[in-house]
Design brief:
The complex is a heterodimer.
Chain A lengths: L4 H6 L1 H4 L5 H10 L1 E5 L5 H10 L4 E5 L24 H12 L4 E5 L8 H5 L4 E4 L4 H14 L3 E7 L2 E7 L6 H4 L19 H20 L8 E6 L4 E6 L25 H11 L1
Parallel strand pairs in A: 1-2, 1-4, 2-3, 4-5
Antiparallel strand pairs in A: 5-6, 6-7, 7-8
Chain B lengths: L1 E5 L2 E5 L5 H7 L8 E5 L2 E3 L13 E6 L7
Parallel strand pairs in B: 1-5
Antiparallel strand pairs in B: 1-2, 3-4, 3-5
The structure holds zinc ion (ZN).
C-alpha cells in the first residue's frame, strides 16, 4: 500500500511515532470499524478514527439529530437538527478526511441485522447508551469472535473496557441487564457533555492500538472514572467460567432483544402526546 | 477488626458480614445497578449471603448508561 505525498504529510505525526511508523499507518488504513450509535461516544470515536486515516468506518443509528444532542454529540451541528444522524456524521467525516470510506446504516442494531452487519468489520465500537443494545453487541461480538470496545457514561462518570476473543466479556462482569425499573430515567439522569469526549477518545485510542498492535489493550480490566474528582480506576477482571455467553456451559447461544428500558418507554409516551 | 478492600480502599470492620450487608454499609443506593466482584470473581445475586473473609477484595461495578438519551 502506497501513500501519496499529501497522505505522508497528513499522517506525519503518526508516522513519526516509532511504535507506529509507515507500517502502522498502513494497518490503520486497512482497518474496518463499525461504530454503533452516532451519539455522544460515537461522535468523538468517528472524528478521531477519521482523522487517523482509518480505512473504513461503518456507522449505524436510526435516529435523527435533536437539539438536545448538540450539548455532547459534537459530530452534529446546529444546521443538522432533524437530519438522520448517520448522514450528518458521514458528511463531517468526509470533510475531515476524504480518504475514509464511510458505510451508513440508518436503522436500529437488532438481533435481526447484527451478524450480517458486523461480519464486514474487524472491530466494533459500542457507542450506545441503553442496556438492551449493549448486551446485544456483546453477545453478537462474542458469538462471532469479533473484538469490541464497551463504553458507558452517566452523569459525571464513565467506564470502558476492550474485549478480544478469549478475554472477559460484558456478561463476565455484568451477567444480565439491570431490571428496567432500576435504570435511571431520562429526567433523573443527564450527562456532562465533556464526559462523552473523555470516554470516546479512550475508545478511539483502543481501536488504533488494536490495529497497530501498540501497547496493551484494555482487556480483562474495567477502566472507570468520575469527573467530579477526576479519579481514574482500573479494576482487574477476568473471563468467568460461569459466563452465560462465553463460559463453559453457555445459555446464551442466539441473540436476544431485551425489553426497552423504562426510559425509552417514558420518552416514547411523551412523544405520543 | 478485619481489614478488607472495597473499590481499592481499605475498610476496617467487624466480621462476620455478608456481601448484602456490605452493600448497605457502603450506602449503595441501587444494588440492582451494581455487580459485585469478590477477589476478582463475579458474584451472582443469589450468593450475596456469602460471608466476607479478612483480606478480601471487593469491587462494586456500576452499570453505566441508561437514561441520558
Ligand atoms: Zn463472558
Amino acid at each position: 500500500m502506497d501513500f501519496t505525498e499529501d497522505q505522508i504529510t497528513r499522517y506525519s505525526r503518526h508516522i513519526l511515532l516509532q511504535d507506529v511508523g509507515v507500517e502502522g499507518q498502513e494497518k490503520i488504513k486497512a482497518g474496518k470499524v463499525l461504530i454503533i450509535g452516532a451519539g455522544g461516544l460515537g461522535a468523538p470515536v468517528a472524528f478521531y478514527l477519521a482523522a487517523a486515516g482509518l480505512g473504513t468506518i461503518g456507522i449505524i443509528d436510526g435516529d435523527v439529530v435533536d437539539l438536545s444532542n448538540l450539548q455532547r454529540q459534537i459530530i452534529h451541528f446546529t444546521a443538522d437538527v432533524n437530519k438522520p444522524k448517520v448522514l450528518s456524521a458521514k458528511e463531517k467525516i468526509n470533510q475531515l478526511n476524504p480518504d475514509v470510506k464511510v458505510n451508513i446504516y440508518q436503522e436500529l442494531f437488532t438481533s435481526e441485522n447484527a451478524f450480517d452487519i458486523i461480519t464486514d468489520y474487524d472491530f466494533i465500537v459500542d457507542g450506545t447508551d441503553n442496556f438492551p443494545v449493549k448486551f446485544l453487541i456483546n453477545d453478537a461480538c462474542v458469538l462471532a469472535g469479533k473484538p469490541f470496545s464497551h463504553g458507558g457514561i452517566l452523569r459525571f462518570e464513565g467506564q470502558t473496557f476492550t474485549h478480544t476473543p478469549g478475554n472477559a466479556c460484558y456478561r463476565c462482569l455484568f451477567n444480565s441487564p439491570p431490571p428496567p425499573n432500576a435504570v435511571p430515567t431520562c429526567s433523573q439522569a443527564g450527562v456532562l457533555g465533556a464526559i462523552a469526549g473523555m470516554l470516546g477518545t479512550i475508545q478511539a485510542a483502543e481501536v488504533l492500538k488494536y490495529f497497530t498492535g501498540v501497547g496493551e489493550l484494555l482487556t480483562n480490566r474495567l477502566l472507570s472514572f468520575n469527573a467530579k474528582t477526576m479519579d481514574f480506576r482500573t479494576i482487574r477482571t477476568k473471563r468467568s467460567g460461569r459466563c452465560p455467553v462465553c463460559g463453559e456451559h453457555p445459555t446464551v447461544t442466539t441473540l436476544i432483544d431485551y425489553e426497552q428500558t423504562a426510559c425509552d418507554l417514558a420518552s416514547h409516551r411523551k412523544d405520543k402526546r | 477488626m478485619a481489614k478488607i478492600k472495597v473499590n481499592g480502599e481499605v475498610q476496617e470492620l467487624k466480621l462476620p458480614i455478608t456481601l448484602s450487608e456490605l452493600l448497605i454499609l457502603n450506602q449503595v443506593a441501587q444494588p440492582d445497578m451494581v455487580s459485585i466482584q469478590l477477589n476478582g470473581e463475579f458474584v451472582y445475586q443469589e450468593d450475596y449471603a456469602t460471608i466476607i473473609n479478612d483480606g478480601d477484595e471487593i469491587d462494586f461495578l456500576y452499570f453505566m448508561g441508561g437514561g441520558s438519551k
